[in-house]
Amino acid sequence: MKFDAAYFSNLTPGQGPENLIRLLQEVQLMEGYISAEAIAAVSLHLRIPENKIIGVMSFYRQFRVKPAGKLVITACNCPNCHLNGGSQILAELENILKLKPGQTGRDKRFTLLTETCLGGCGKLPVIRINDTHHKITSSDQLRHLIDSLP
Ligand code: FES
User: Fold this and answer.
1) Which of 62, 66, 110, 123 makes the best surface tag, with the fewest CB within 10 Å?
2) Which domains, and CATH codes, for the chain?
3) The whole model's pTM is what?
4) 3-state secondary structure of 76
5) Residues 94-142: pLDDT tens digits?
6) Which atom, in ligand 1's list, is nearest to the CA of 125?
7) Is ligand 1 within 6 A of the CB of residue 76?
8) Rounded to a whole number, what is the distance in angstroms from the first to the last CA of the chain?
9) 81, 113, 133: residue to mutate for ligand 1 pocket, most atoms within 8 A of CB
């Protein structure tokens, strides 16, 4: 869905910087990424300079500034997952999807990202497909998972 600047007219103006992350998350849910137009609207609404918003967005890797694919696959690149085979899983994803981290396929089906700890640490490497976490047990399981996606 395209970002709708009218969204902010339903909110109390000047809510303060403590609402920045939540608003950015809502905008990203609305349009799939955070456009320059949306950054300007958030800036006006919260009275925070655009360059500060961009600084916050660059700190939190969850925020995207480019349109993403229908399926956003995020691989954990933290040492814990790395030690459990996470780097092999990322290499396998790159091979299956024919994408490098940060890229979206031409058909806009997949976006591949990496993130520091997806919050699913354990004995198996973790990936996230849109909002769902998956523990990966093998290359075959990963390939089957990707093949089964809509
Ligand atoms: S270290 Fe990979 S999910 Fe936390």
Assistant:
1) 123
2) 5-59 (no CATH), 71-147 (3.40.30.10)
3) 0.75
4) strand
5) 999 999 999 999 999 999 999 888 888 888 899 999 989 999 999 999 9
6) 2
7) yes
8) 19
9) 81
